């Protein structure tokens, strides 16, 4: 049964007094835009009217953009954000599952990071731990990569699955990763694409409503949101990220969800690869029980929190141990193979990807036509590799979109050949760039070289990107 909740009641004054109309009388879009532009508060009916206009096509693109910008500049309070979340969730079909599954239904969402392939590993790992994970994911937004784009770089993988197909996937595999469709949260699909091209990505209310509307229709018991902060995150400051985290937790409570928010750093790329195909390969390494330590740590910590908060583990540490075991004993990898085959990948290819060596996997996936290596300009210790300039250059090379629906090049990407904290000698290769077009230009090469920050420090162990976990009220845990 889909999760549902009733937002806190709004007062008649808040609902309609600003326009001088009764709250039940529908307002025209220009009036709603003007109200929010001037700092007014939108009623639940106002918000439903705007969302309905988005879905039925009566809202023009310019009006959608204007409303998004008004919300971005003026903000929304908790009740408005909850109302927007519910309106988006109710704009399409609600997913329904057997009642016996409710406590097992969990999911994770990320606000977007460079090299963030956690979902590809975590969904099958949770399924191997007995969870049901109906993950509705997104495409690249801004300079960050999208989970769906990464999975679609695997030949045959289909992110479009009907609710009936999702039910079958959860029964047979325990997890699925799908995209929004015309039936599932269609209003958010429209607004999501519009935010990417209207400079309104970094709105706390719009981010919250977008994330939780997709999760509300999933009928979850528990959700963990990875809220990133740092140089390559939507919010560079940890306090701004904490504001979003608190909003997600509080709106989640109003929807009847147990939502926890993990604050994680996004200054360096997560893992050692950036780019769709390269990140799939690295996810497979992690599913092999190997892979970069920061990626493995994120998967284990987020998965452990979900198992604990949903009542499927007695403690966070016990949850962490169960996820780690699923990575190490091959059960998570087996679930990933089954998910690939169930979502359209040829079973032979799925089996080869999940049983072959890294070299063999590379021959099975599409790759860029050439590679270029960058060399360390001097001796020093790697203080950090700035994720943002790296992502921006790869976006320019074809790994990202500048407009909704734009074709991307799945093989374009970069491999970090060094670790943060490692000592380098001048001339040592530190980055390998995979290109599908012309060679790197002078400005692109300079931007990439500027991403490598060296210091005179002694070598050191790279810190975990996991900063803190904001929990829902303890009374909401089963």
TrEMBL record:
Alphabetical list of SUPFAM superfamilies matching this protein: Nucleoside phosphorylase/phosphoribosyltransferase catalytic domain, Nucleoside phosphorylase/phosphoribosyltransferase N-terminal domain, Pyrimidine nucleoside phosphorylase C-terminal domain
Comp. bias regions, Pro residues: 1-11
EC number: 2.4.2.4
Gene Ontology terms: cellular component: cytosol
UniProtKB keywords: Glycosyltransferase, Phosphoprotein, Transferase
PROSITE patterns to which the protein is assigned, alphabetical: THYMID_PHOSPHORYLASE
Region (Disordered), start-end ranges: 1-30
Catalytic activity from the UniProt record: thymidine + phosphate = 2-deoxy-alpha-D-ribose 1-phosphate + thymine
Top-level EC class: transferase
GO molecular function per UniProt: 1,4-alpha-oligoglucan phosphorylase activity; protein homodimerization activity; thymidine phosphorylase activity
UniProt domain Pyrimidine nucleoside phosphorylase C-terminal: residue ranges: 381-455
One annotated GO biological process: pyrimidine nucleoside metabolic process
Pathway: Pyrimidine metabolism; dTMP biosynthesis via salvage pathway; dTMP from thymine: step 1/2
NCBIfam families cross-referenced by the UniProt entry: PRK05820.1 (NF004490), Y_phosphoryl (TIGR02644)
Record's function text: Catalyzes the reversible phosphorolysis of thymidine. The produced molecules are then utilized as carbon and energy sources or in the rescue of pyrimidine bases for nucleotide synthesis.
Family affiliation: Belongs to the thymidine/pyrimidine-nucleoside phosphorylase family.
Assembly with partners or alone: Homodimer.
Protein name: Thymidine phosphorylase
Gene name of this polypeptide: Tymp
